[in-house]
Amino acid sequence: MNEALGSVLYLVAASLFIFGLKRLSSPLTARSGNLMGAVGMLLAVVLTLLQADIIDYTVIIAGILVGGTVGTLLARRVAMTGIPQLVAAFNGFGGAASGMVAAAEFLENAPSEVETAITVSISTVVGLATFTGSFVAFGKLQGLIAGRPMLFRGQLFFDSVLVAGIVGTGIWMITSGDRTALWLLIALAGLLGVTRTLPIGGADMPVIVAFLNSMSGLAAASTGFVIGSHALIISGALVGASGLVLTAIMSRAMNRSLANVLFAAFGGNGEGRPDDAGDGSVIRATIEDAAVTLAYARNVIVVPGYGLAVAQAQYAARDLADRLAERGVEVRYAVHPVAGRMPGHMNVLLAEADVPYKQLLDLDEINDDFPRTDVALVVGANDVVNPSAREDPSSPIYGMPILDVDRAATTIVIKRSLSPGFAGIDNPLFYLDATLMLFADARAALEDLARAVPEA
Length: 456
Known about the structure:
The structure is a single chain. By secondary structure, this protein is of the alpha/beta class. Helix content is 58%, strand content 7%. It has a six-stranded parallel β-sheet with strand order 3-2-1-4-5-6. Helix 6 (155-176) runs antiparallel to helix 7 and helix 13 packs parallel to helix 17. It is globular, with a radius of gyration of 25 Å.
């Protein structure tokens, strides 16, 4: 292929990446943005193959068929509750691919230039640490590994020694070109990914998913420098930068720094007492009680949480909202940035159920409206509506921005039990006089409420 034409087409691919990423910022344009990014990547892959003078395409075609089949099956069959795990796995495989390409380049032709050797070591370390860290996150999200922070005595010292060992091994590899150093570097980087992710609790998974996504992008960009791929450099830099911005947004939404997320070992298992283990101070509501309260409200704000995702209750929530709208009730949704298990989890769920985009409002847009709201309907949310974050300086989540549902005239909480959220602390909201607790599966409760609401 003509080199000038190839450069122009690579520029087109990069432009598609950038405009696609921009369109992902709104639910209204996200689908077209995703398509633009996919077309850009397809173009970049085809151009790379055409310019590589490949003699035998057998392995490449086999890889495309296998990868395309697996990707299609996963995309169509994974439930929305499993999307955070799927994203974590994608981050891991992306990091591993980048690290393996950089390592293969080193093994094939040990770089003589110091700059290239340094880039190879960075790609390998970041890529392999992202791989193992992402699959530890996958295990925590899937419930294969305990969600609580897992530490051992002297872990910070051990991790410090491990980092020093990685730096030393990297210098050894750069100065000597020894393949043994590369294999040792891979092993140490993989171990670091495990030891740094295990101490992070389930409450911080939205931040960690975003951070690991950024690391996979940085690994790809570094590998792009190693093999001289402009498309890989641009796409990796875009993923890395956007992931870091998202990580910062998630950290700010929890009023914590990234360092605190990575090293504070915050959060619990999300396990606690069952609904019948309380002291009797909660006000239990029946379906009929809640239905009447909702039916005669002027306005309702629905607050979705991970419990809604687990129960696959997004369609039932929309049906209830439609039934209330028929009675003239104004219904909107308040979405906290860290509700669910990954950034944007609730937005994706509600969009899947065709909830109008104009009804989806973030914390800053809707929080001031709660004092003028008749009913706040909390579905499976916990930490993001905990008043302790606003009122109790001794609380571990003090200072975290929350949705002020306790300031509504009435709050209805649909929850299976009084168990704490991923932060592992109790929620005073449940015991307020204006709070009605509806202990039930989210989907079943919302379906029953929709049937119980009187017709207009």
